[in-house]
Amino acid sequence: MQTKFESKMDAIRLHYKMWMEDTSGKGILGDGKWQMLKLIEKKGSLKAACDELGYTYRRTWGNLKKIEDFFGFSLLEKHRGGADGGNTQLTPEGKRLVAAFDHFHARVDKVIQDGFVSFLDELRD
To answer: Where are the domains of the chain?
Structure first.
């Protein structure tokens, strides 16, 4: 038996964002900052990462500073100038934070995707 939802089942897509807040509700780390940190490590440049994601340098710098202030350590190692120009990489702690968020996201993504499949199954019944 077909439900009234059946004609739209293939058109439903799940989108969500995750972020963490401190006890006062101020954002610490979420999907956007996580992607930014990963791209900084890949590109070796905060500016290149900002350009690729369409973020402003000034706002991104401020957001990264807030994460550093919250945790009490630097996320980025900045190397200026030289023959090849400067570069920016994640500190060991920055890499650990990104890796932990990668693992957290992978586990949560699976749970959310399973929940979404169950939601669709309920609509089909």
So the answer is: 19-124
Closest to 61 (Cα-Cα) out of 88, 84, 43:
88
pTM (two decimals):
0.85
Cα(58)–Cα(51) distance, integer angstroms: 12
Contact 95, 41 (CB under 8 A): yes
pLDDT tens digits, 69-114 = 999 999 999 888 666 667 899 999 999 999 999 999 999 999 999 9
Can you give the pLDDT at residue 82? 61
What tokens appear for 68 in the block?
A: 């550093």
Residue range 19-124, CATH number: 1.10.10.10
